[in-house]
Amino acid sequence: MIQHISILASILLLPMLPAYILFKTLPSSSATVSGPLQGLQLKLGGAFGGYFAVALLAVYAHSIWSPAPAYQVWTVSGNLVDDHGTPIELTDPNYVSLTPATLQIAPGGFFQATFFTSPSPGGSEAFPLLSFKLPNFEAKPIPLDPSSPGAAAATVRNQNVFLGKVPLTPLQAPAYEPPPGALKPLPAGQAYQ
Q1: What local confidence, expressed as pLDDT, does residue 67 receive?
Q2: What is the mean pLDDT of residues 149-169?
Q3: Is the pLDDT of residue 18 over 80?
Q4: How far apart are CA 57 and CA 84, in angstroms?
Q5: Which residues lie below 8 Å from residue 168, measured CB to CB, with a gap of 6+?
Q6: Which of 27, 59, 84, 105 could tie 90 with a disulfide, CB 3.0–4.6 Å?
Q7: What is the rounded distance in angstroms from the CA atom of residue 111 to the CA atom of residue 134?
């Protein structure tokens, strides 16, 4: 951010030196800048007209002095556990998804994935969504963007996201309800008639 401010300041302040020299040496210069600007008709002359033209060029050439951020490589790691803190083994890489993905799984429910962030409008970065879909557990999506409202409680350091233990909730099987008209068990000691 400071670098962008210093570049913009130099773009706006450096042209003042030649504009001042032109003003002192050619006070009655006939150079003019005129035309419509945002619905207003402008007619500026002399050194100030030249400075105004350079300042407008600097403002409208934003992508030159403040380019979009480059892609970055990040790493996310963690440990899947159930409600009691017991590690959940990742036996299939398809249980964890990240797009684009580079995933490594290890015994004890440990995993590590490398992901890329991309520039988004406004100069911020777009982070991916990490998803866990294991059999017999509820699916769990985790936004990796630290500024996201539903972001994981994670430690972010040097482009590494440490999730720590990631608890997954077991699926609750619904209580069995026999269909209407189905035979029902008889109390003990009663015979079926």
Answers
A1: 65
A2: 75
A3: no
A4: 62
A5: 80, 81, 82, 88, 132, 134, 137, 138, 140
A6: 105
A7: 14
| Cα–Cα dist 56/27, whole Å | 22
Compute the Cα dihedral for 126, 101, 110, 83 and give only its sign: positive
pLDDT tens digit string along 24-39?
Answer: 766 665 666 677 776 6
pLDDT tens, residue by residue, 110-150:
888 877 777 777 767 777 878 888 888 888 888 877 777 66
Angle (deg, nearest 10), helices 46-60 and 2-13: 150
- Cα torsion 125, 128, 130, 133 to 10°: value is 160
Residue 101's pLDDT is what?
56
99 — pLDDT class (breaks 50, 70, 90):
low
Full-model pTM: 0.43
Q: Where are the domains of the chain?
A: 2-65, 72-167
Distance (Å, rounded) from C-alpha 115 to C-alpha 121? 19
